[in-house]
Design a protein that fits this description.
This protein has an eight-stranded parallel β-barrel with strand order 1-2-3-4-7-8-9-12. The protein has a four-stranded antiparallel sheet with strand order 5-6-11-10. Helix 5 crosses helix 6 (152-163), helix 12 runs parallel beside helix 13 and helix 13 (325-342) packs across helix 15. With 399 residues, it is α/β, with parallel strands linked by helices. It has two domains: 2-111 and 203-395, TIM Barrel (Alpha-Beta Barrel); 123-195, no CATH class. The longest helix has 22 residues, at 205-226. The model has no long low-confidence stretch (mean pLDDT 96). The chain is globular, with a radius of gyration of 20 Å. A hairpin with a 5-residue loop joins strand 5 (114-118) and strand 6. It has 15 helices and twelve strands. The structure holds D-mannose. The site of D-mannose has 14 residues, from strand 4.
Length: 399
């Protein structure tokens, strides 16, 4: 695999040099300062390449070109935004980029209730707590239809939790959920969020699925034409939130979007951490089934409080948790071997250690939530160890 590392640009407290020292070969980045829906300017693309080169690495993957709500709902400026997405792809291709990640989650991108949940040995991990989330939805956001979306026991727990909640916790929930986490395209106040939710009335699962297919039908041929693989990141967590449909949560969801627009350039960002929050997602099997369409990989692990959908979970260490990481990496290495035999240029699949717990000096550095230096370095080192072992000529898979 090609070992990459997410860098949020010059504002990132973890530098490109740090990434190189951690063992990364390439960088994953995006122009977060360009408004959603607009074309990325050529000189800004060039500048990001230069910034990364100055740190000693190259820009391998774009994560993400943001997806406007207009595109997802097919309203307002959606046609212009699709044309802009296509033009951004052409410009990125001309600059040497070959892989572009995106997601199609309505309104909210990845969502956690707690960004610094303390683990047994004092590390800080990210957590999604279902009771906190329901308390937010019913009692803080006060979404009119919220209560009906939760079973009685959860409504009761949420009411109890909310009655003892301090102002600080209420503000943190509003910020973590509504204002968005690093990499999210847009953030909202509670009123804006309610307003946005109203814009999804009438958009059910089938409709959103069709809107994704319509988008891909326009964009995937352009991507193929300019030699870029686009790859959809899954829903995180992989179930409906705030009554919104989510359409890339399961193996069946991915099968649908890949079949409907059956062009190899239309592919998957396999995120083991996102999909792994559901017990019915068998990650090694999914990695094998969609192997040829996997263009980018996020390796991360979660430990669930229960095997229900939805559930509470926290981001565990990369080799702990629900996903059998050795089996996933073995599946990806087999696919790379297959591509090598076919003489494909893209036989090394870019991967990044996704997130990391804050450990050691991370605890005081104040990097982006989920993206500490040492926690990710540790993840990358462990994942590389597995890869090296599995591909060893004498002891590995091919022995
Ligand atoms: C979280 C990430 C997400 C993801 C985007 C992809 O760390 O995995 O922000 O990058 O959703 O578009």
């Amino acid at each position: 695999m090609r070992h990459t590392w997410r860098w949020f640009g010059p504002i990132d407290k973890v530098s490109v040099r740090d990434a190189a020292q951690a063992g990364a070969e390439g960088i994953v980045s995006a122009l977060h300062h360009i408004a959603t829906g607009e074309v990325w300017p050529v000189d800004e693309i060039a500048r990001r390449h230069e910034e990364i080169k100055a740190g000693g690495l190259v820009w391998d993957v774009v994560e993400s070109i943001p997806m406007s709500e207009d595109i997802k709902t097919q309203t307002g400026d959606w046609k212009r935004h699709i044309a802009n997405w296509q033009e951004t792809l052409r410009r990125l291709s001309a600059s040497g980029i070959r892989t572009v990640c995106y997601n199609f989650m309505p309104i909210l991108d990845w969502t956690r209730t707690d960004l610094r949940w303390e683990t047994g040995h004092g590390a800080k991990a990210m957590r999604f707590d279902l009771v906190d989330f329901a308390a937010f939805d019913i009692h803080i956001l006060k979404r009119p239809e919220a209560a009906a979306d939760y079973p009685d026991w959860l409504q009761e727990e949420a009411a109890r939790r909310f009655s003892g909640m301090k102002d600080l916790k209420i503000a943190a929930l509003a910020k973590n959920i509504g204002a968005g986490l690093p990499g999210s395209a847009d953030g909202y106040t509670l009123d804006q969020l309610l307003e946005k939710l109203r814009s999804y009335q009438g958009i059910d699962r089938a409709r959103l699925q069709q809107n994704l297919v319509d988008f891909l039908s326009e964009v995937a041929p352009v991507a193929a034409d300019v030699g870029i693989n686009i790859c959809a990141h899954g829903d995180d967590p992989p179930w409906s939130l705030l009554g919104l449909p989510r359409i890339l949560s399961t193996e069946a969801d991915y099968a649908h979007m890949l079949d409907q627009v059956n062009i190899r350039a239309n592919g998957v960002t396999l995120c083991t951490g996102s999909l792994g929050a559901r017990p019915d997602n068998d990650l090694p099997f999914i990695a094998t089934r969609f192997a040829d369409r996997i263009h980018f990989v996020h390796l991360r692990n979660v430990t669930r409080d229960s095997d229900t959908v939805p559930c509470s979970f926290f981001e565990d260490e990369h080799l702990e948790g629900a996903t059998d990481m050795v089996a996933v990496i073995a599946a990806l290495l087999s696919e790379e071997a297959r591509r090598r035999e076919e003489g494909r240029e893209d036989h090394r699949i870019p991967m990044r250690p996704d997130h990391g717990q804050e450990i050691l000096d991370d605890l005081t550095r104040g990097a982006q939530p989920g993206y500490p230096a040492i926690g990710r370095l540790k993840g990358l080192a462990e994942l590389r160890g597995i890869e090296r072992t599995l591909s060893h000529a004498r002891y590995g898979l091919g022995a």
